[in-house]
Amino acid sequence: MEMPYCIPILTEQDIVTARQMGRKLAKDLGYGMIFQSRIATAISELARNIFLYADSGSVKINIIEKEGKVGLAVVAEDQGQGIRDIKKAMEDGYSTSGGLGAGLPGVKRLMDQFTIESQAGKGTRVEIVKWRD
Amino acid sequence: MEMPYCIPILTEQDIVTARQMGRKLAKDLGYGMIFQSRIATAISELARNIFLYADSGSVKINIIEKEGKVGLAVVAEDQGQGIRDIKKAMEDGYSTSGGLGAGLPGVKRLMDQFTIESQAGKGTRVEIVKWRD
Amino acid sequence: MQKENLLTQYQEILQAYLQEGGENQLYLGQQLSKWLLAGNVPPEEVIELHLGALSKKTEVSEEIRASFEMLTEIMIEYGNAIRENRSLRSRQKQMESEFEIAVAMQQTMLPDEVPDFPDLDIGVVHVPANQVSGDYYNFVQREDHAFSVAIADIVGKGMPAALCMSMIKFAMDSFDESSVKPGRMLHHLNRVVERNIDPSMFVTMLFGRYDTMRHRFRYAVAGHEPGFLFCARDEKFTDLEGKGLVLGMLPETCFSEKEVALESGDMLILMTDGVVERKIGTRYFQREDLLPYLHAEIGLSAQEMADRIYRRLLLLSNFELQDDYTMIIIHRL
Amino acid sequence: MQKENLLTQYQEILQAYLQEGGENQLYLGQQLSKWLLAGNVPPEEVIELHLGALSKKTEVSEEIRASFEMLTEIMIEYGNAIRENRSLRSRQKQMESEFEIAVAMQQTMLPDEVPDFPDLDIGVVHVPANQVSGDYYNFVQREDHAFSVAIADIVGKGMPAALCMSMIKFAMDSFDESSVKPGRMLHHLNRVVERNIDPSMFVTMLFGRYDTMRHRFRYAVAGHEPGFLFCARDEKFTDLEGKGLVLGMLPETCFSEKEVALESGDMLILMTDGVVERKIGTRYFQREDLLPYLHAEIGLSAQEMADRIYRRLLLLSNFELQDDYTMIIIHRL
Ligand SMILES: [Mn+2]
Ligand SMILES: [Mn+2]
Ligand SMILES: [Mn+2]
Ligand SMILES: [Mn+2]
């Protein structure tokens, strides 16, 4: 496994950098325009949550392989306040309310895999994977 | 008030004719592309319901005026079996089930006014109005 | 239909439209869009489809191609909304099936039949405005020569009203005195409702006991729409008066009892406010407006009379029921 | 944001993107798309917006312009789905608020406090897996030196379970014998459930009467998860055995009674199957696996013990509750 790309998220420009990196890797892997955009969109949501609601955090992007399949894995991690009610944050309708965790159901539906861990006061970790068909 | 255009709906080609007539009148009235398409779409749904589920019926299109406003009114009438449960037919979700009355909630939302009358065994009458802003 | 197939179809329709134009192709396009939606093709893929089909037919400049990248970006968000639509629909389906079971359970709370006495004719119409009813009625017979009747309106709708109704039914069934006194019954029910229900919710009720020997109806009222007594001799309807606080307002409430006597041919008409509350055009129906409709059906059986009044009132308000509707007619033959 | 404003913004973003390209503009595009959605701009209008902005920046051929007519046609149908989304959301909100009221009503059906006797210590933990609980428990005290306890699991979830629960509560309250015999109570409840409930639904229950003079617990079981009796002398837990059909299955069912005696220090542990039913990784938790957790907390007060057991079991299943959870501990001091 290669070393992942890691983008610390401190400013809004870092969100753009993370998007760009995701799009580039997706393109290198041979994803079409839509998948490039979807990955950029998903990274954008995760990075924006860090930018808006956590003091610091990072987005790591990695090319992964499993059982002959190639995919893109993204890990967004922060040391923010954490999401109090993950179940609620993953419900539809909540996503439009704004606030921490907004947009997560949309991200989940864009990807093949989605895992989230969050502890109040300790931070949040979201991992997403999109496999190449 | 002018005499309305009247298109009897017997074949699928009549649906197309009704759409075209609606689009043309909308264009004459100065509606933009989207409103032209929306009116054509709404007429299409109503005419298709007649074509699929009633032996005969017609679509009347009329330019109307009220309190200085100009609009397009469409009346779709048939002598079919009628819609048993209008309330149900106007609920979301039902619209995708196919069958008589499918698509009516969508038509209602596209228009400014929507009235429906239906009697079991006697037929259905839908009237829609779209005002020019 | 396969996605591949949809793609090919879109290409064909678009090419034909670019060649000849015409409403025909637009109509086919609309039909196709339903297949696309049903096939879970999100809008961002429609954009891609479109660009692909367009490129096969005509020259697409670099600039226009680039503009489609922006459009795709925008449409992904719209795609999220449409994907959410699917999950909202399935959640709604589940909730609705719960509602349906609740409705079925509610049905079992209503009495199966009306009391049967040789010199009484009883009719009932009970129609909920929505799936779940907030009106309730009940007949209880514990004595040979008397029965009790309750008619109630739960202020509040849907599921909470259904829960409240089941509570009232069982509180009524549990009242363990063989000869029920209406005032005492309301007193008992008031305590149950007050203790167990959200302060914002309350219940109006008329509860009465009909003595079939003496043909006297003794009743008490808790903020409920007054019924009518029809006097056959002078062909007049008078209000079944009675004052009392609605159930669930105060923990201790007293309900005074009234009594009326029925001669042969006389009738009791009990109802909920849903019978009266209707808008006709821009005008509101009044309680007095009801009288001609009642008069018009006298002479029929109690059930036929109740049915016809319901149908005529429904016609009047253009087949719309704004509130739950319940009417009970008790006719001394 | 105004629609006009959104239009201008889209033009600016698209023009900048066509000029310089770059992720910056795409990011702004994504942000804008959220505003467009929030501003109820349907996808067909986005297409129009796009064509308008594009035409200002570059030459758009007649053919490409015509292709946008087809795209608009398609997008109107997608717009219908998104417009439907709004109405689904508002319907869902309404349904959820009904659920919330029902949940609040359910709360009031649970006893406010546990029975108070000088030589007994009682603790309860009751946690619904979802909003609406299908577990129920109740304490009834009609005699000076005895109280009854019921613990039940309604098979079926959500609103129908809530309705069933209210029925059981009032059927229990209505049982008009001063000294309750557990077998007779289950017999009574079975008839109520059988008569009033959908055949697909049933209820498991343990009902017992604790005599605080003789410290004997007499109970009957209707298909319910067995409880435990903890014997302090030999520090062992034994099952509170008892067989009986679940409530609601057959109209006439008999429930045999069992009796156990408690010495000082002994404990009764009553529960629903939600205490046992949990998956740990890929393995299912077994009833025997519970015993070390019970043993570990002996010595605490009944409430503390119940609380700690709940927390440790919850941790074990990664904070997920697959079923409603109820545990009652009755400790003879
Ligand atoms: Mn009501
Ligand atoms: Mn009412
Ligand atoms: Mn259960
Ligand atoms: Mn259970």
UniProtKB/TrEMBL annotation, chains A, B:
InterPro entries (alphabetical): HATPase_C_sf, HATPase_dom
Domain Histidine kinase/HSP90-like ATPase: 34-133
Source organism, top-level taxon: Bacteria
Protein name, as recorded: Anti-sigma regulatory factor
Species, as recorded: Brevibacillus fluminis
UniProtKB/TrEMBL annotation, chains C, D:
Record Pfam families: RsbU_N (PF08673), SpoIIE (PF07228)
Any one Gene Ontology molecular-function term assigned to this protein's record: phosphatase activity
Domain of life: Bacteria
Record's keyword terms, sorted: Hydrolase
Residue ranges of every copy of the PPM-type phosphatase domain listed in the record: 117-332
Tagged with keyword Hydrolase: yes
Protein name: Phosphoserine phosphatase
Species the sequence originates in: Brevibacillus fluminis
Species lineage: Bacteria, Bacillati, Bacillota, Bacilli, Bacillales
